[in-house]
Structures are given as structure tokens and as C-alpha cells.
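Now for one record.
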Amino acid sequence: MDIHGVAPPEAAVDDRAAAAALVHSKDDAVLPWEPNTGRAAALIDDAVVTLYDTVTWQGHQFMGHWSWIYVARNDPQHNGQHVWQWMAQQHR
């Protein structure tokens, strides 16, 4: 615990953590990559990370914080498998 009674992020990650698919856009001005998703990726063993340059879908560019659009559209892939199918196969 720190002086404010808050556990450091490392305390939330242990060997019982569920599988993690992390999706982020480099141009996210709300939550920058490095101190947020980048940090989580470094702490979570075997996290599947997809990092996009921008959030662009069907020719329209959205703000970088909207990287959830890619997940909603089942776009991220890992080893040829889309994110929703990958998630459905994960077990604790």
C-alpha cells in the first residue's frame, strides 16, 4: 500500500489472473499507451496486445480513445484468430 492506502497496480496482477486481450490506439489522448495499457501489458504474462496507430473504421477516423470500436467489430487477431473467438476459448 502507498501512503494513500492504494495498492500499486502490480498487486492486482498475480498468477490467477484471467487471460487478457489488450487493445489500444497510439493516438489515445485520454489514456496514453505507456502508463496505461503498455504498463498492463508488461505486468500481465501472456497478454495478447493489439496496438493500432489510429482508430479508423470504414474510412472514418475516430478519436484514439475509441479503440473499443475494433473489439466491437471483432477486428483484433492473434495467430489468425479474432478476439471474440479467442476470448470464448479462454478458461481460468
About this structure: Residues 23-88 form one domain.
